[in-house]
Amino acid sequence: MALLISYEGADSEVWRQEFSKHLPDMDIRIYPEVGEPDDIEFAAVWMHPIGDLQRYTNLKAIMSFGAGVEHITRDPEFPRHVPIVRLVDGLVVQDMALHVVHWVLHFHRDYHRYLDGQKEASWQKYPLREPARRRVGFLGMGAMGAVAAKMVRNLGFGVSGWGRDPVNLEGVQFFDGDDELQPFLESTDILVNVLPLTAATENLLDERHLAMLPKGASVINISRGAIIVDEDLLAALDSGHLSAAALDTFRVEPLPVDHPFWTHPKVFVTPHVAGINYPHSAASLMADNIKKVVAGECPSPVFDPVRGY
Ligand code: GLV
């Protein structure tokens, strides 16, 4: 029984060591040193080459190194009969929530404007707004959104969430589905996008939806770049309708060097670092799921092709 590790940009030897602590009998192979393709029963992947997974005819599960799985489903030939197990690690969820808190505070307290002011030695002060009157809206209230929403709520902000399945969180106003997207956006000063990328969410934050945010709103994106229409976001920032955007994920990654986001004065770019896997923790969770599959039990959470995440 072999586990194939294919993790673009990572030190695979570190992952081999971590996996072997939990799966001492597993034959661990690092892509592209695959050996006999029929031996591969598990493939742990991030940005694996398109078209390759279908070669492993004895595959029992595909383990994603991320919560998102579109790096797998973008492959038109990925084996559809094999479960795709997502990685939702509480440590990473916590880090992502902290990233959100950072930018919420930044925009709430106008630090982006003070950074600009310092460049001109300007002693200009901006009035404060009570945190409870600053409305932070989470687009997506799944495993990630709910944790960040609670953290931001606990700091005293007015918090709301939007999603397709009702989520009951004390002190968080929930907006339900397509019909309530407009009132949700209209009542959001700081929008945090935590949605998975699916056919339904791709390009969701376009000109029309961005225009529903109140004037002066800001946007934080920690899920997937393709949910925002880049040109529409830039236009809303340039017109003064939106005041700032903190973007951690992009349609194309790495963000191309000539992309206008890099130099736009109202855009803050981070290189997809809101959450970064901890090998010890991620390998332990993924190994537990591999053991479940071997024992004939259901791994969790598994990608649902109908929901798209
Ligand atoms: C990272 O972006 C993930 O999908 O977890």
Explained architecture:
The chain starts with a strand and ends in a 15-residue tail after the last helix. Helix content is 30%, strand content 18%. It folds into 2 domains: 2-89 and 277-294, Rossmann fold (3-Layer(aba) Sandwich), CATH 3.40.50.720; 90-269, Rossmann fold (3-Layer(aba) Sandwich), CATH 3.40.50.720. The protein is an alpha/beta fold. The protein is built from 9 helices and 12 strands. β4, α2 (70-73) and β5 form a beta-alpha-beta unit. The protein has helices at residues 12-22, 70-73, 90-108, 111-119, 143-154, 181-186, 207-212, 230-238, 279-294; strands at residues 2-7, 27-30, 40-46, 61-64, 84-85, 135-139, 158-163, 172-176, 190-193, 217-221, 242-247, 267-269. Glyoxylic acid binds at residues 66-68.
Broad CATH class of the largest domain: Alpha Beta
Q: What small molecules are bound in this structure? A: glyoxylic acid
Question: What is the rounded Rg?
Answer: 21 Å
Unreliable stretches (pLDDT < 50, length at least 5) are: none
Quote the CATH topology of the largest domain: Rossmann fold
SSE string: EHEEEHEHHEHEEHEHEHEEH
Summarize the main sheet: 7 strands, parallel
Give average pLDDT, whole number: 97
CATH architecture term of the largest domain: 3-Layer(aba) Sandwich
Give the full name of the CATH homologous superfamily of the largest domain. NAD(P)-binding Rossmann-like Domain
Q: Helical proportion?
A: 25-40%
Fraction of residues in β-strands:
15-25%
Main-sheet strand order equals: 8-7-6-9-10-11-12
Alpha-beta classification: alpha/beta
How many helix segments? Answer: 9
Any idea how many domains?
2
Rough outline: elongated
Cα(first) to Cα(last) distance is 28 Å
Total strand segments: 12
